[in-house]
Amino acid sequence: MDIWFIVSNTIVLACIYGTLAIGISITWSSLGLLNLSYGFIFAFAGYGAWLFAQNVSAWGPAVLAAGILAGALGGVIICAIGFIPIHDKPNFTIRGLIATLAINLIGTQFLLWWFGPRSKNLPDIFGNWSLSLPGAVFTADKVGNVVTSIVILAVVLRWMQSSRRGLEIRAMMMNPHAASIVGIGVRRTSFYVMGITGGLAGLAAVLLSQTYYISPFGGLMPMIKGVSIALCGGLGSVRGAVIAAIVLGLNEALTGMSIGGRYVLITQFVVIIAILLVRPRGIAGLLDKAREA
Amino acid sequence: MSLDSGTKWRNPLFVWGGKRDVEELPTIPFRSHQEVWEGTRQSKTKLNPVGRLRYYHKWPGHGRTMWNRLRYWPTRRRVLRLRGEYNPKTLRAEKTIVDKRPIWWVLGLLALAIAPLFTPGDLQNTLLTAGATFGIYSAISLCWMLIMGTAGVFSLATYAVVGTAAFVTALLAVKFALPWWLLPPIGALVGLVFGGIIALPATRLDGFYYALLTLGLNELCRVYFITSKEFGSANGGLYGATTYVPEDWSQLGQLLLAYYACFGLMLLALLLYRFVNGRRLGRILRMAPEKREAFAEATGVNFRQARVWVFLISSAALGFIGGFYTSNFGGVAFSIFNFDTVLLGLAMLVIGGVGRAEGAVVGTLIVVFFDQVLNTWGPARFMIIGLIMLLVVLYLRNGLFGIKAQFRAWRDKKKSERRSTRAEKGGEMLPEEATETDDKSIIYQRRYDKMTRNHLKTLVSPEVIEEHRQSLNGQHSEALERLLIYFRTRPQVEKYAIMAVERFEGYRIVALSGHRGVAPRVVEDRIYSTPDEACHGVFMRRVQDLLES
Predict the structure, then answer these.
(1) Which value does ipTM take for this structure?
(2) I need a labelling partner for B220 at 20 to 30 A (CA). Which of A95, A259, B194, B546 fits?
(3) What is the pTM of this model?
């Protein structure tokens, strides 16, 4: 009973965190940009989905698609404002970090000013049914979350492996300089990358909004968790992000069960620091100097 | 030489009855070399008028006074860096202030010290409260600047340290009724312990991985303090600590006391900044900037240890500020852990420019002004701060105080671009080459040669060639004479000569090697039957080379 509960919680959390962390990880490894405006994209996508549900249609899949599209739009906006002007300037890493933080500050305050501080909630996307198995009950949102995130992540990873654009992105991940020499434009590819990762953030926003509400600052906690999972798994590694998402999801489920929800962050950071002290570049991260720039 | 109507050349020796002399020959009109000279020397790019590039005040007189140097007491630093020199024009002894920053500091601090006297009555409350906040926040920014600028550790947990120290001291003060003067030292202790704990991963992680970790750490502190009962999760913060502001004073008196106490805190932080950044620790760390750490390590600089030291010192100072924060406000609110607080703090550093004390103070002033004084604007003021931050990051290299250096670098770039557009190719030296040539006369010689060639190119015409074919020797027209003189004065290397294949029968053109013992090189297969024809052939080749150069 307990074990089943922990396992199911772990899987749900790992799916959502993995979606977040993979987006951050892909952005970092292909563009070298640490996107700390992820929280803003998250809230932006949530509000996009909410507006769609209010004004157009409350049909689940359509709301989900609207959230993903709004997230992609947010990513493209960040790319145009925060990446394109500075990616060829000196000290880009720290500059990009600060620029995305500034965009985050502006964007969340804008959302606060436009939509007000009251949080919104989305309609049930996956309906209101539940699945009873011996030992555990799976509610609609849990099953829906897991299935949707796994399907969409699989589609994205498949696209990255088999399509022309995916090849370009992977080339940029390996060596951005060499990629630009053979004609893979950093600017054009960056729009694809930010669109995709923004879409993943939008997906996570809609999925999480089944449990939490949408608020201007609601993206902060998912962003911090996503960033720390990406960091723990090794920035730039999809495999590492998945492993770290499972480890930290398990940690969160166990902590929540045994000593209470308020200690989740503490145990999470103890785990992350322990992992980083052993492997400074994360679980599956590249070793020092293996990837320049 | 006289020219007849510009198109005919009259041979002055004709009247003497030379053997093959002709009376007159068609030629080209006179062209002055002055035109080419002026055309070349003329600037083709628009030149903007520029004033004096560096402006210094010059004070008359130096001598013995130059050596009577006033120094800050425990340091060997001089109050003002002066340079004594002789004015090359007037030969008068002059003093120049090389670094005017101390003057600006003194003026700025004086202005802050007397500012309360000039606040308008209806704004006194807002402005003095904002001033006190500015004092505390600039002290925090200065300590953070030590971590981020001097130590080069990109830490975002600064407000976590301050907040933890503030909450712990507030809890102790409430529980044990501690006096207010005990809070800052206790806070320093708490800060030292907390800093020591978070310095542990800093030794292993790269700056920017560490930033991510500390970002999460801040959130961890927030969640922990908000959810714990003893820290007042019910009422949004922990209040009720003793404060140094006496309650029986008038409101203005209380405000002024808080203002000057916070101002004093800022001065202490400035002192700490100066003592860490400007002395041994700071110098060790300046030896090991980003990407040159391996070099510094190889030369025996233990920068890791220095980093940890700076980190611990500033963590203790941040804890001290946290304790002071509690004794100033009588408590602390959870908002100190907010992500927006961290962002605003980062904005303070970034707007001013990372790595400078004046950047931290002025950046804090700007942010606090928008945040506290314009607080009726709602979310708009955060958007303005974010926008300033974004623009600074996008367009400035190192904040507002880096503008001067950035502008100078840009102007130097533009100057060198203009210089390189002014130099043309064609034998002339390019600017980069010219700066590396020791013998500057070579530069001018090449330039002169290029201008000569440009002039001579205008003289080549069918008339002149025909004239040379008709009379190789003797008097020539002005144009031909100039061409021939130029050709004759060329150096020996690759100079054309005539070789007799068979005397009076066949001649061919060769190029001299210019080196003793090295045979000349055959230039073309053609064999001329007379020396005159070969001579004209050499002339044609030289004209060809001239036109191609």
Answers:
(1) 0.86
(2) A95
(3) 0.77
